[in-house]
């Protein structure tokens, strides 16, 4: 029997400051105006229960780039130790985006759906 779980988390991006969550680690050496092409960025964003930065931290969002493979690794609460795997195209300029849930571990084993 399938189980439906609705999660709402807030993903915080801090690209600057003393402890940024987005860091450029490599980029192509082009004299081309195409900004970002060939870049590798490491991201480790906080997942919180509420929209405030000081809300309870419940995990980390760790994506790749525009074509994204990401894992939400829950570290507290009832989902502690479980993960949700997300994959797909991240249309970063869109206000609302959807990507597919491609699986998970722990309580989210065999998960499917979309975020």
TrEMBL record:
One of its GO terms (cellular component) is apoplast. Pfam families: Dirigent (PF03018). GO terms for biological process: phenylpropanoid biosynthetic process. It comes from the Eukaryota. Gene3D superfamilies: Allene oxide cyclase-like. Keywords: Apoplast, Secreted. It is found in: Secreted, Extracellular space, Apoplast. InterPro entries: Allene_oxi_cyc_Dirigent, Dirigent. Dirigent proteins impart stereoselectivity on the phenoxy radical-coupling reaction, yielding optically active lignans from two molecules of coniferyl alcohol in the biosynthesis of lignans, flavonolignans, and alkaloids and thus plays a central role in plant secondary metabolism. Homodimer. Belongs to the plant dirigent protein family. This is Dirigent protein. It comes from Papaver somniferum (Opium poppy).
């Amino acid at each position: 029997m399938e189980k439906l779980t609705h999660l709402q988390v807030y993903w915080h991006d801090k690209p600057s400051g003393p402890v940024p969550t987005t860091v450029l680690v490599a980029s192509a050496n082009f004299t081309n105006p195409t900004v970002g092409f060939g870049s590798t960025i490491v991201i480790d964003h906080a997942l919180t229960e509420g929209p405030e930065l000081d809300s309870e931290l419940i995990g980390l969002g760790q994506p790749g780039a525009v074509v994204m493979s990401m894992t939400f690794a829950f570290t507290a609460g009832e989902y502690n130790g479980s993960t949700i795997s997300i994959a797909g195209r991240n249309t970063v300029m869109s206000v609302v985006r959807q990507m597919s849930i491609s699986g998970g571990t722990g309580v989210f084993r065999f998960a499917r759906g979309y975020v």
